[in-house]
Amino acid sequence: MQPVSDISEVYEAIQRAKIHATAFQTNLFPMQGKLRSWISHGELFCEVHDGWALFFRKDRDFFHLYFCAANENTLRASLQGCLRSQRFSVDIVGTEAAVGSIVSVFKSVGFRPYARLRRMVLLVEDGSKKLNALANGIGFACLSDCDALGDLLSRSFDRLAEQLPTDYELTAAVEAQQILVFKREETVGGLLFFETQGLTSTIRYWLISEGFRNQGLGAKLMRAFLSTHPSARRFVLWVIDDNTDAIDKYQHYGFASDGLIDQVLLN
Amino acid sequence: MQQLTNILKEIRPEFDFSSSSDFISDGMLDSFDITMLVAAIDKNYGISIDGVEIVPENFRNFETIQNLLRKHGVNT
Question: A165: which of A66, A169, A178, A187 fits an S-S bond (Cβ 3.0–4.6 Å)?
């Protein structure tokens, strides 16, 4: 496992995997900004051979595993040799029909299914919403909230399955006004963390802390979020597949599964 | 051009790609969509887009995608 020091190494590695491809397989969907950030923070490592490349992103006490392989056989071969000493989490994203064979490859080398997420999408008509003032107690998080936000997120979500933000990502999100919070007497009682790119906005986390539940605060946060995005046409989120309470809530707001799943496996 | 429009429509039917000059900044294509687009282009045009070419710059709009296709010998 070698550290990646430049983004060009990633593209060259993909090329080495792709050059002999008969049925190219990957779970690496690189956006340059993210890759650069991982590299600059020393989080990204790789192992590259002709026909396959594995990338490892350090996250707390484990690594996220990304692969590029010429076909399923080279993927299996690449995994057999190098996954003994560390804990790895891998996300296989696609339609139900598409992920099955890749999941089988991972199972054959000792990975086990850990969690499954489904993507839900809300499409809205252009101009159907108006920008409203934020409700009482709701506003954008500030830097002094970061510790409380990090604590809430790590207590409420699964670090192995739900891509929790690092401290630097949390700080950047606060600075970019991507986190709405409900606060009472300076205590953060709930949050909605989103990322918006043009017409699409992704809800990364939405939660209400214990002690603040059953007061309609989640709905207030969701309404505040939607009202701050009058031009968005598409809202997207990932939710754990058996979290029926959350799925019911999202469906209440008009979200529906779009058929994409994320099967998370651990070694 | 029509073939490319159809491919994009298949990936993200809710968007009117003809109204955008930057599919990425406008939030019409995300990183996962780009990977699906590359696979669809490879299959539909019988080419293999290189790993080093799978960068957002090549998928920003019709013109950049057509330039990429031309580079691979596709007559657009």
Answer: A169
- Report ipTM (2 d.p.): 0.83
Q: Do B51 and A11 touch (CB under 8 A)?
A: yes
pLDDT tens-place string over residues A158-200 = 999 999 999 999 999 999 999 999 999 999 999 999 999 999 9
Q: Which of B37, B32, B27 is nearest to B59 (CA)?
A: B37
Asked if A13 has any chain B CB less than 8 Å from its own CB, the reply is yes
Decide the pairing of beta strands A52-59 and A62-69: antiparallel
Cα dist from B43 to A59, A81, A152, whole Å: 35, 31, 45
B66 lies within 8 A of chain A by CB: no
Give CA–CA dist A236/A254, Å, rounded: 11
Give the integer Cα–Cα distance in Å for A10 and A130. Answer: 42
pTM of the model: 0.90
Q: Are B51 and A196 an interchain contact pair (Cβ–Cβ within 8 Å)?
A: no
